[in-house]
Amino acid sequence: MLSAKYATFWIKQIVWYGLGIFIAYIMMTFGNKFLYNNAYILYIIGVILLFLVLFLGKDVNNARCWFVIPYIGSFQPSEFMKIFLIILLSRMINDFNENYIQPTVKEEFIFLIKVLILVGIPSVLTFIEPDTGAVIIYLIITFVMLFVGGLRKRWFIILFLICAILVGGLIALYKFNSDLFINIFGTSLLYRMDRIFNWSDSSGMQLENSLSAIGSAGLLGHGFNNVPIYFPEMQTDFIFAVYTSCFGLLGAMFLLGLIIFFDYSLISMVNKTTNIADKYAIGGIIAVLLFQQIQNIGMTIGLLPIMGITLPFISYGGSSLLSYMLLLGMVFNISNESLRFTN
Are 68 and 58 within 8 A, CB to CB? Predict the structure, then answer.
């Protein structure tokens, strides 16, 4: 049985769902064109919030990622920065492709530098909080949307090689000279590296208890609101383990079926929309959802490193849920445009 701490979470989650549906409806009255036209304003707002949270945010588990709003709850700017980046990159890529029908290598290079600077600013601010999971999502959004935007493939090879060299050097320094690693990057990054390598050794209380909760569930689970094993962040990062513990293998298969159906519907929408900026936006939205779904479920069953990644629409949390409802508002706008074109 879950403790009294979680007794009111479902009520709060319903409230957030209601607010999210209302916001998505409001977005449908403005349309995605309004968002693209104000992309830079939204981006600046997001960066300012990420900057302010470093000084005015509340420390939770050695991370300063949240503003606390009295009587309402916490607010996490990095969740909404994902949306602002999708909107910004959709406009930037669309404008670039309209202005340069057959861009030269130099023109693409200059454009790529602009993109990396604009993505790098919130990435650095978010990394300092620290929220490594959100930074990875920013980079995945950028990579996928640039790929969908038709950038020359050589740039992706170059970016991949640069990332491989940087990550390889970081791992080598961590493994062979931890003192120098701490002097350069501090203990915060060391802790995050420890979590990754603890995963590779299949150790850690969170992972062990998550695997026990899932493994003991059987075909039908322990029943609603009945999780016999405790582990931290069970309502957010480890919600899939909680769900599977309650509803078993059949419940997990049902949830995975819904997720696959939803993702397939988004992918099929790409070919239906005629708005190029919307195509780029759908690419970013799919990238966010697929990564978080795979990462969240994978880390609960020991296949991927443990990060602060929530399961979209399922994990508890107002900021996370509202951010995805905003994405749904964009999807509804795209779907309505597709229906109008078809009719």
Answer: yes
**Average pLDDT of the chain?**
82
Q: Does residue 57 contact residue 319 with C-beta atoms inside 8 Å?
A: no
234 phi/psi in degrees, rounded to 5:
-70, -25
Number of other residues whose CB lies within 10 A of the CB of residue 121: 15
The pLDDT assigned to 120 comes to: 92
Omega cis (within 30) before 130: yes
Element (H, E) at 59: strand 58-60
Residues 6 or more apart in contact with residue 190 via CB below 8 angstroms: 174, 178, 181, 182
Residue 203 has pLDDT above 60, yes or no: no
pLDDT value at residue 186: 67
- The structure tokens listed for 141 are 């959004």
What are φ and ψ of residue 73, in 5° steps? 140, -160
Question: What is the spatial distance between Cα 58 and Cα 319, in angstroms, rounded to a whole number?
Answer: 15
Query: How many angstroms separate the CA atoms of 80 and 321, rounded?
Result: 10
Q: Is this model's pTM higher than 0.70 or not? A: yes
- Read off the tokens for 6: 């979680």
CB atoms within 10 A of CB 177: 12
CB 208 within 8 A of CB 301: no
CA dist., res. 155 & res. 168, Å (int)? 20
Winning range, highest mean pLDDT, from 238-247, 279-288, 330-339: 279-288
Query: If DSSP codes are grouped into helix, strand and coil, which group holds residue 75?
Result: strand
CA distance 290 to 279: 16
- Other C-beta atoms lying within 10 Å of the C-beta of residue 159: 17
How far is residue 302's CA from residue 210's CA, in Å, rounded to a whole number? Answer: 9
